[in-house]
Amino acid sequence: MNLANRGNGALTTNPPAGDQHLSVHGSDWLWAVFAVFAITSIIVFPLTWRARAGEKIFHYLFTIALLSGAVAYFSMASDLAWSVIPQVNNIAHSGLTRQIFFAKYVYWVISFPVLIIAIGLLSSVSWATILYNIALAWVWILSYLFSAYTHTNYKWGFFAIGTVAYLALAFSTLAQGHRGARRMGYSRDHAGLAGWMNLIWFFYPIAFGLSDGGNRIGITSSFIFFGILDLLLVPLLAFAFIFLARRWDYNRLNLAFTQNSRVHSAAGTFPDKQTHGVAGTTTGGPANSTNTTHPVV
Q: Which domain of life is it from (predicted)?
């Protein structure tokens, strides 16, 4: 078998459609992005077992985001998970129909909340704020998906709503998150991570407006744009979070719940749990007397 003659046969097995559709070079690029996500997930997964006892929340989160990215880019590189949608803008330039890959939107629905949870845990904001930010991300992504599937100029109404949701999300993760991180003593790390995340997010509306929204650039060009953004976002932040988390105090960040219940608590990992933990763990006459009078149920 001559491996040198083996090429990318994805588009032969799964033929594209539409005036604007995926090219062989575009599929090659998508396979490269898939490889980065796959290799990064293979690197991050073993690091979970080298983390300090119980301090694996960021490893878990980014393993999910990286694996979902690998699945999405595998499907797009294989020319799967798409629809042909009639276009209303730039028809003379790009044609009447366009191949819309919904796999990338599904990936963002998973990966963006992972980033929001991670940055929310670092800034020690409330769970209500984290859920609010996740909902904003879903409104943003789903509005863009609806826009991509709308074949009239009403698509720009969806685009406007999604962009407003993005702006609200950016304000929340930067302003509110910074206040919480400063209170915890991690404002510098938060500023770097949240600032980078929002810097990359800033380019997603531009990329969408040029590609699935405005039909201005082709499928391959759009995938180069989105692929670079996705690589700069999740794989890069995965390593940044895992590296920086080694010096964070999980008890101070209220992340001690990662060692509760069925997770074994290694001695000394959360020293404050010895004095502020479960009632009945202290010793001595007065404490035992108090626990007898007021039992914990």
A: Eukaryota
